[in-house]
Design brief:
2 copies of one chain form a homodimer. Chain A is an alpha/beta fold. The first copy, chain A, folds into 3 domains: 82 residues, Immunoglobulins (Immunoglobulin-like, Sandwich); 294 residues, TIM Barrel; 80 residues, Immunoglobulin-like (Sandwich). Helices cover 20% and strands 29% of the residues of chain A. Chain A has 9 helices and 28 strands. In chain A, the strands form 7 sheets. In chain A, strands 1-7-6-3-4-5-2 form a 7-stranded mixed β-sheet, covered by helices on one side. In chain A, strands 21-22-23-28-25-26 form a 6-stranded antiparallel β-sheet, covered by helices on one side. In chain A, strands 11-12-13-14-15 form a 5-stranded parallel β-sheet. In chain A, a hairpin with a 3-residue loop joins strand 8 and strand 9. Chain A starts with 6 loop residues before the first strand and ends with a strand. The relative contact order of chain A is 0.10. At the A-B interface, strand 24 of A face strand 24 of B.
């Protein structure tokens, strides 16, 4: 291999560009694939048309060393091209893609724990460039490490404007041609995913959704499938991608359950990197036991069942929508910051993860939940405080540890517990700590973001004075023997 | 009828005293009944032994005019006694007993609406005389018009002391003789029920409960039945009595469902005045569809299902225990005042009724919830505010009127609505008021207890600015045409 061979860091995005036909409809007429090889391993990858006669094939190499490839195509100009590149050690901030770890939790490919603290800006990527830049500036200082965002534009309350760019060509009547894609839109989407990657934020890509006036929600099966393969071919090489088959899949009247099964299977078969796959409900859950579902992306206002949902299919629980901090008239978008923070804590001490959103009325209808922009609420800094506590906790995540006198707790047996009294205001906690062992106990005010070590140590059955106010938590850590 | 005949006001308690045998066991050996007559009506009533050779027969006459009676007994001294009395118009504060009205609500016998705003002091009547006097002083200035209280003493956390008096004789081992009753205890109970009557408070008499170390919870069937008939014979003449078969009936391991059915039927057959009958659950509900159940006495923390419970058996819903304001370590007794008030509002705007309780830690373990005493919390004055609003509302009670953009509402169609945003903080409400008609709208801060009329009138579809803070309600009243 020559010293000048192209270099790509591990879990970086390698890209090969080929020139091919522009005539006809390259999106439907041209088949392009490549086989990447690393030693004896063969990784088949789909290419995609990117307009102006350019075809691209992308790969996220997951092993350090020499990779080679050879293309196959039904067009002679694109068939049989070969190449190679050198995969190098990743940069310090690059931990690889996130996967499921310890059954109910997540970790990056290099083993670094990943605790999802997500937010939602459904169509921030469809707004003005100025607003998108503002969103990225906001995210830089926000606690979020996952962003739910849509490929397709959104037609819904507060979302009546035309998008900045359309994923498909749109005719004079405002209806899409689903047989073609708009490369300018997708180049921009690529960039936004990379922008999030730079900020350490996972892009939870929502592939379909029901809020539509252009035809994206009512494509025929062939168009749906072609679209899914196209998006996966474009984006899978970005290590921070997650796949969400849909938002509120159950509101998409034109799709059946077998359509959803097929969509999952297409993404599973097309993605060489096996990014996380979920689907988000409005009312009824999709059957998360199905083998292609990697984690549960749930919409529910009440966190009481997080343990049940975990146990029901032994997969991580991410309650991506549990209502949003805000003041709109819809009940899903008008909870106070205290309630938003409360839901994060409630999910955490049951071994799950909650998701943030914000819906404060705005003179221009710029609501974080859809458009991004700036955050107005009081929950993000408290969510940052919780995130720090969780990151300081057991690397393997918090496992449910029962309910102590009405205080649900999670942690790691005999080592670490986080108990949360929620909106109750007990003045005492009666603990029964595992013996033998002595524990240090910190009193946590989840709203004031304070951690107060209590005089200890504590062991066995012990009584702890609490401040008798809501939103109090206890952190209990085994002391070195 | 002589001018000097005894007089009893309508729904007052008439009592006839007879002297009879003291020997043997008068509680088991002597049968005593009376037939009261009012015109052609015959009302059979049980008498009871009250110690020292005295037997009593009580009746609450419900019709103005001349009543007569004749006794029947298996003892000649008590058999065939006759008498009469004159039932006169009731005093102004006497509206008669409470019954079900308009399917889901309550009214006194004279038609005056009764909206239950209950509290619980399970064994206040078992405390020192001083503490009982303090409880009555507290109740005089509290908003409550119903009190849940037990006949039997209570053995439970914070309830470890011996009662001031025992309902049955207790032997040296602390076990009861269920074949006899203690007249001193029951005379005192009579007085406490009358004391509550004087204060306008319904006495929701809890006949059985599981918290016991003396044997009251484990009597045999014959003793249970005799006890029930005894209590009903004593107390049914007091117009403010309600019957609760048990508190947390489902925790009484020695009773079966057919026992509970039998208890209901005994009370139903024995009570000549057909006072309200319910039974209070811990976990699973008793089948409130059974014909002898007059209303649903529910324990649940979550008010979301009040409408469902109503519809399920078309009887009033009283969530007598929905957790208590306090700071003990048990989750049922450590909610903040805001949450207690919130639950009252949540029940109200779903067409139901909530119940209050208070459990603040106390150096002598004197917790309102069991012992009475004084109130420490911040919810009672807010509950009084709600009570006033409800009393100013439709006389037929508040009927569910749907959910307006997440704000459940109840009222009377086209006339009156009370909507409550709960712990959401909408900055706008979009109303769709029934047409034709113009409405006045008041903004209510349920915590600050303020009512602010909004500039109106309002009609049809209209948008209302709200303060964007939790615990906001709207009162909407049709204006005179």
């Amino acid at each position: 291999m020559s010293a000048t061979a192209e270099q790509v860091e591990r879990w970086g995005a390698f890209e090969c560009v080929l020139n091919g036909p522009e005539s006809g409809n390259p999106f439907t007429d041209v088949e392009l694939n490549a086989e990447f090889r690393f030693g004896n391993r063969v990784v088949p990858v789909r290419g995609f048309y990117d307009g102006a006669g350019e075809y691209r094939i992308r790969l996220m190499p997951d092993a350090i060393g020499r990779w080679t490839y050879r293309t196959r195509s039904n067009r002679v100009e694109l068939d049989g091209a070969t190449g190679e590149f050198l995969c190098t050690a990743p940069a310090a901030a690059n931990h690889g893609p996130v996967g499921v770890a310890h059954t109910y939790h997540f970790a990056y490919a290099d083993g670094t724990p990943y605790y999802p603290i997500g937010t939602t800006c459904y169509v921030w990527n469809h707004q003005s460039d100025e607003l998108q830049a503002q969103t990225l500036r906001t995210l830089k200082h926000a606690p979020f490490n996952k962003m739910r965002m849509c490929v397709f534009p959104k037609h819904y309350i507060y979302n009546q404007r035309e998008p900045a760019r359309h994923p498909c060509p749109v005719n004079a009547e405002g209806r899409i041609d689903p047989s073609r894609f708009n490369p300018a839109y997708f180049k921009h989407l690529d960039q936004r995913v990379r922008d999030l990657m730079q900020l350490g934020i996972e892009a939870d890509i929502i592939l379909l959704h029901p809020y539509d006036r252009w035809g994206y929600a009512e494509m025929d099966a062939m168009s749906d499938d072609r679209y899914l393969r196209y998006v996966v071919a474009r984006l899978a090489a970005y290590r921070n991608v997650w796949w969400s088959m849909a938002n509120e899949y159950d509101l998409m009247k034109s799709k059946t359950m077998s359509d959803w099964d097929r969509f999952f299977k297409i993404v599973q078969e097309t993605d060489p990197h096996q990014h996380l796959r979920g689907v988000h409900n409005c009312r009824g859950f999709y059957d998360h036991n199905k083998p292609w579902v990697t984690h549960q992306s749930i919409q529910r206002a009440d966190m009481a069942q997080v343990c049940e949902w975990r146990t029901a299919c032994r997969k991580p629980v991410v309650v991506d929508e549990c209502r949003y901090e805000g003041n709109i008239q819809k009940n899903w978008g008008n909870i106070p910051a205290r309630e938003m923070v409360h839901k994060f804590w409630e999910a955490t001490v049951r071994g799950g993860y909650a998701g943030h959103g914000e819906t404060y009325l705005h003179p221009d209808d710029t609501l974080w939940w859809s458009h991004g922009g700036i955050l107005h609420g009081q929950s993000p800094e408290r969510i940052a405080f919780l995130r720090q506590l969780v990151e300081d906790g057991p690397a393997t995540g918090l496992e449910p540890a029962g309910v102590w006198q009405g205080m649900p707790a999670a942690g790691k047996a005999n080592a670490y517990y986080l108990g949360y009294a929620g909106n109750a205001q007990p003045a005492k906690a009666l603990l029964n700590l595992p013996e033998p062992g002595a524990y240090a106990v910190d009193l946590i005010d989840t709203w004031e973001m304070s951690v107060t070590p209590l005089d200890g140590p504590f062991s066995g059955k012990c009584e702890i004075d609490l401040p008798g106010k809501p939103y109090t938590a206890l952190r209990i850590r085994r002391r070195a023997d």
